[in-house]
Amino acid sequence: MFNIILFGPPGSGKGTQSQKLIEKYGWKHLSTGDLLRSEIAQQTPLGLEAKNFIDKGQLVPDEVVIGMISTALETNPGVPGFLFDGFPRTAAQAEALDKLLQLKKTAIAVMLALDVSEEELVKRLLNRGQSSGRSDDTDESIIRSRIEEYETKTKPVADYYNGFNKVVHIKGEGSVEEIFEALCKEIDKRT
Ligand code: AMP
Q: Hey, CA dihedral for 145, 89, 68, 32, is it positive or negative?
């Protein structure tokens, strides 16, 4: 199995690049943001709880997202690998993920981190908010909170994987195709 984390702040292009990567490599895409939005759409108790945090631009509690990922790992046997998008977002989530993968006798092969400046992120998210229908993309103060959560709670996840020499930084500004090629180059070196 080849398991990969696509890492980066909100608006760095993780969703766009994930779509292209799963099409090329056939991995199972696990986006906790997408999973949470699906729970909200179905108005499940988990979705209703998560919505309170998402609407404020705050992270959803670790146990909620770890539970979702644990279920997803169990319900997708036989895939060539998992592409984690928007997860892990805290050091506790990273440690939990490593343990879950260990139980499956596998591990994270690489974390590809997309680097984008804060001003570019805000611009992209406000722009996306005009068409995404996502309430957390339309208000600049909520966008700034999401970036703040990233800076304080999520960046340490990169330090965690850096300790295992698994992080590669990729310039996340440029054309979608250029960034995709840079990602594929790093993946192909390792497969
Ligand atoms: P995303 O679609 O990845 O930008 O996620 C949208 C929102 O869902 C985030 O701002 C968080 O509130 C929540 N969320 C998604 N993934 C996670 C995660 N791994 N841990 C905590 N909250 C998350």
A: positive
User: Is the predicted pLDDT of residue 135 greater than 90, yes or no?
Assistant: no
In terms of Cβ atoms closer than 10 Å to its own Cβ (0-12, 13-18, 19+), residue 120 is middle
Read off the pLDDT of residues 18-46 as tens digits, 9 standing for 90 and up. Answer: 999 999 999 999 999 999 999 999 999 99
112 φ, ψ to 5°? Answer: -100, 120
How many other C-beta atoms can be found within 10 angstroms of the C-beta atom of residue 162? Answer: 13
Residue 109 identity (one-letter amino acid): A
Under a CB-based contact definition with an 8 Å cutoff, are residues 116 and 8 in contact? yes
Q: How many CA atoms, within 13 angstroms, populate the side-chain half-sphere of residue 169? A: 9
Quick one: tokens of 112? 């590809």
| d(CA 187, ligand 1 centre) in Å | 25
Q: Which residues of 40-68 are buried (b: 16+ CB within 10 A; e: fewer)?
A: beeeeebbeebbebbeebbbbebebbbeb
CA of 151 to the centre of ligand 1 (A): 14
